[in-house]
Amino acid sequence: MGRKILLDKVHIPGIKTFKVYRDNGGYASVEKALKKMTPAEIIEEVKKSGLRGRGGAGFPTGMKWSFLDTRSNNPRYLVCNADESEPGTFKDRYLIDYIPHLLIEGLIVSSFALGANTTFIYVRGEFKQQIGILNKAIREARDNGFLGSNILGTSFSLDIHVHSGAGAYICGEETALLESLEGKRGNPRLKPPFPAVKGLYDCPTVVNNVETLAAIVPIINFGGDEYAKIGIGRSTGTKLISACGHINKPGVYEIEMGLSVEEFLNSEEYCGGVRNGKKLKAIIPGGSSVPILPAHLVAVTAANTPRLMSYESLSDGGFATGSMLGSGGFIVFDEDACIVRNTWNFTRFYYHESCGQCSPCREGTGWLEKILYRIENGQGRERDIDVLDSVAKKIEGNTICPLGDAAAWPVNSAIRHFRNEFEFHIEHPDLIKNVQHGSIEKYMKVMA
Ligand SMILES: Cc1cc2nc3c(=O)[nH]c(=O)nc-3n(C[C@H](O)[C@H](O)[C@H](O)COP(=O)(O)O)c2cc1C
Ligand code: SF4
User: Fold this and answer.
1) Is the pTM of this model over 0.90?
2) 174 CA distance to ligand 1 centroid (A)?
3) Residues of the chain with pLDDT under 70
């Protein structure tokens, strides 16, 4: 069994309630942090832990916290990003559903460390149930003296507010989120200035992911050095992975960083292998925006080393042969899956979610969607694959926020590794029109 430090208590009946959570050691990190540590000491422990942001980019959390402008006389804010809209990613929702007090505990310690007296949880609009769960947990924490004025008799006071988004994926991008929280349209801001200097209401702000903030609890409980012993290299700690697609056991799993991808995919403790005894075609390891990895690059890297669930190993070889850990949305495709259809489906999503501020993303995602649609529907033209690749490359790196990259990478990587499927679609339009969704491989085998 792998080590669990976030989900170790989710099996305890009633753990969602304050009483059961507290009876099982919950909120100990708040007592330790507020009564025995200074904010600077907490930030130091987080730096030592090597924790990297779990929202997707993997930026070191301690370093991000130390960028917060402490010279400003303005209030400081902590904002928890619970927007979680990336296709294939559903681990933050799981954490809120099953152990909401872990997040509230992490938020109290983090707010104290950052000197924030008002903290927001920005929740994806569709998460109606989770909004209720969070509000209940906040009420319980307040009723028991862990929120409000002079927490546990100290001089520290904190209010946590839950704010619902309105169903836009782009509001997960931290500056779009801040715009939305301020009541404006969720358009990403040009950076710099970064939120650490000019964030919510132009005040110094830290935005962190749900899982990142929950991980602060074990870091304070065991100490940063102990936390850093879990995992591998610069990928310390554990990671929540939401696994879905063609596997026997979809779900959310807590893994120790450094577990082999093959073990994660095939062992009974985790995904339980590809379903119906089928062969693996590909995986997307970090949510829909990261490059797809074909089966021959799943178990081993191009350098023939075992592929591990870590930031470094998953990106080994760059985009030519690697991908990214991203937000931990692990999507599996069996041998029958149609990569063209899947790429079109993702692209349709990014086209719909583009905020429209920059032309390469606004226009480019539209072109990608249009061309992929026609290839998928048996109307592809010979030049289409090269045009797709070229449009995607023109979006990448040329936009205000990374949504443009997120739209381009799935297309580039699908063409790089599965060009034959795109060609097959274009060369056999009549056949493609009759193909049942998601069963392209059978036809390719027959035609070979
Ligand atoms: C289009 C887009 C959507 C994003 N959605 C989320 C999200 O739903 N949740 C999240 O935590 N981070 C999301 N991010 C990343 C955030 O901008 C930010 O990096 C993150 O919240 C920082 O937290 P962390 O350092 O704890 O990872 C998104 C980024 C982009 C570009
Ligand atoms: S990249 Fe796309 S989503 Fe991001 S700011 Fe530009 S148009 Fe908006």
Assistant:
1) yes
2) 6
3) 1, 434-448
